[in-house]
Amino acid sequence: MTLGEDTSQPRALAGDHPVFIARGLSKVYGSGDACVYALRDVDLEIRQGEFLVLLGPSGSGKSTLLNILGGLDAPTSGSATWRDHELTGASDADLTAYRREHVGFVFQFYNLIPNLTVRENVRLVAQIASDPMCPEEALELVGLSHRLDYFPSQLSGGEQQRVAVARAIVKRPDILLCDEPTGALDADTGRLVLGAISKVNAELGTTTVVITHNSAIAGMANRILRLSGGRIAREELNRTPLRAEDVTW
Amino acid sequence: MVNVLDIKVLRDLWAMRTQVLSIALLIAAGLAVLVMSVSNYLALVGAMDAHYRTERFGDVFASLKRAPNSLVERIREIDGIGVVEARVTQMVRVIRADTELPISGRIISVPPSSQPALNRLHLVEGRWIDPARRDEIIINAAFAHARMIRPGDAIEVILNGRLQVFRVAGTALSPEFVFATRSALPLPDDRNFVVLWASEDAVAGAFDMQGAFNDLVITLGPGAAKAAVIEELDRLLIPYGGIGAHDRRELPSNRLLEDELAEQETLSIVMPTVFFGIAAFLLHVVLGRLIEAQREQIASLKALGLSNLPIALHYFKFVTVIALIGAGIGLALGAWFAVLVIDSYRAFFRFPALEAHLAPWIVALAVLASLLVANAAAATAVYRVARLPPAEGMRPQVPAVTPLAQHIGVMSERGIPMSYLMALRTIVGRPVRTLLTISGIALAVPLVLFGLFWFDAIAHMIDVAFGRIERGDAFVTFVTPVPARALHELRSVPGVLLVEGQRIVPARLVAGHRSYRTSLVGLSSQSELKVLRDAALASVAVPDDGLMLSRPLAEHLGLQIGDIITVEVQEAKRPVFHLCLVKISDDILGVSATMDIAALNRMMREDDAFNAASLKLDESQSRIVWQRIQAMPKIEASSVKALWLALFDETIAGMIIVGALVLAGFGLLIAIGVVYNSARVALQERAWELASLRILGFTRREVATILLSELVFELIVAIPIGLTAGYALIKFIVSLRVRESFQVPVVIEPRSYAMAALVVIAAAAASAFVVRRRIDNLDLVAVLKTRD
User: How far is A16 from chain B (nearest CA, A)?
Assistant: First the structure.
């Protein structure tokens, strides 16, 4: 592992083609003297199949960046493009279609539907996808085949988050966006969830972006972007990513 | 320093302003009905009491053929008698150039120089008659208004077959003619019935009654025994053709008025109680859900060390503000509708002063009732939430995993869309709440249906009364019984297609200690123009022998089929018969006593005598018909079905429609209050979940479907329940409207059911629309940050 290696140019590690390109992204809240920059003039490319970690403390802009990436928020200036889709200025319907067809989300607090079983939570998303995998298959991928008919309230936090991962990948998304996926979990449980995410990345080739303030998780990534004050302060490449079970914090 | 929780109260109220307003409207609707009903009832009673007292309305009335004025002194000597007013009164006909239709009237003598001692007149326009002029007359204000007659105008009256022209000195209201009607039908006929008051000289002169009287108005002294007075009066008057003294109850106007007030009294208590009760229940449901949706806040406050009391007080303040807003709107709406409804009453009840009046105690009662109901709802909801340990309260409420909820999973295997599955799970996961919401929506339905029902009931009554029972186009009465050839004469008038005679005899029906004064109708069993009908509208044959009574009358007299009834005829020689009750009919027109006309003629020792006739007319020739009939001296009065129907539309229908629209409007408000709040709270509880789904790529429409399919399910279950409950409620309220004049049928047309359902569905759709807009504006980014 060679963490901390500086690169002047982003390099393709997993694939050659950037699937996501951002240029001069800024996000400003408020106006005049009271304005706060969440993002300042960020340029970014994400390549097909890579495992990218956005690392930074609270307020560094990583969530804002993820939101723009996921079509949940619009930048104040700059452009963001997903393949041939221009995300900046897209309509709500276009952004919904983008999320529906291309993006899988994993939330910090799982956000499962409490009155649907594990299988149904996954099937819910499978039903709106054009080419989904079988829900049971997705759940097997995250190691939950034995919990298919449980309700979320009957599962541990880690299990719930793995259901969330299965739910995110069942539609075979092009990009998996994970927002502090282990933030609400203890280390052991967190590793199980990270294992599921990296398995998806490795086996399905899904481009994966994880935002976290936990620098230990960065060890799993192909590439790490450290954000600070709304800018990408540092970009690191990792030629020898760790397996999830080897990550410690 | 301002209590921070009080600031929260204000902020909560503002943040939830739409919900607050809809709940306030719910209270307002319940209160408005209460305020309107009670104050209108009080206004009517107040107006009647004032009118009766001011104009010194008599207690006992008696009619006779003719008695010398000297008899008055003997009457005054009867123990218990207060004031006696003797007068002459007769039916007359009035000729107007503005109509060829018959106008009948009653002329009553009054002292030329002063008001009578009893049944005084309240002058509306003009002045009292000039003692020096015999051709001056006062007419009832309602007729004057309907026919646009002013003091100074001339009026042509046929008295005793002679045409006489009078000059109108004034127009007046009389306590005896609050409802100016000559028949038992519960309708004032202001256009075609007139009451005329002329000087004693003029009236007595016209009817050869100088020095004599044929009508008495009497008040009783303090502590007088009415029955004994009436008995003594009858004894005195029989030699003079007295047809039985009676108390004021039996005067048509007063009977209708008392019936109406008795009914209003029941309705002004029952209906608003039902209405407000439902509103209170719904308030309970809605506020309960609203407060339960704040369970995490309540738990947090408890965790911070606040005891239950300040938390409860906080919510009491919250609901008190809502209740006060509701009470304010309710009082204003109620007072406004009271004015509207009182206005519609004015065409019906002729009082000198009939004003809607909002008594302070009603205001106090309304405010108190709304505060109590709102705070009781808050108390139970806060109690439910506050007894949870804070840690539990702070966790989001998760629907229970019940076996039923598990079982529903099987359905998802069968391709049931997941959105329906989610709705179903929520529904079965919280059965109590689901039940409450369904009852809430269901209860909004009867309120709307109750408003719409009146339209059907009226249409049905008109159809039955004028389409199936009274099938003639017109009805005439004769001054004295006439032989069959008089009917042939009528039949020979061009344009008269069919004539059927009836013999109508005023009679007192006596069974044991019970009695009832009514008209005994003799009808041919072959009658086509008057067909008696049972409840199923099948024709009921007039029995060849014996008496047939309508059910309310049979019940009033405590009679069953086979019982013997005493009939005291109050006409001519006042014969007394004993008849067997052979049939009880279920017609809707209230009280009726019918027998075969031939049998009646035999008992009255008459040969084919008639004093009334139904006519079938050729509508295109009705003008000629009426011109000819006007010229027939033997005809005392006539009425035309088309006029009755028009009259019905103008008076009763108008009055009921105003009330019905008001009720339906309030029902709508309540429906919106329930459905909107239900959907709104559901959104509040599940906003996080729904926003998550939006992030996962669900469209706005799909997310809305998930939330609203719950509402759709509740509607599907609630509406049939509501319609059934509506029928039951209407049946119950109608059962309280037992009155002699007519029975309201519980008839609800399919379109009214459909309309009531549609109104609630429309309320749901409007609510869904508002909620949908909120779904569209869900904050997706917030979902990624916090659990709240």
Answer: 27
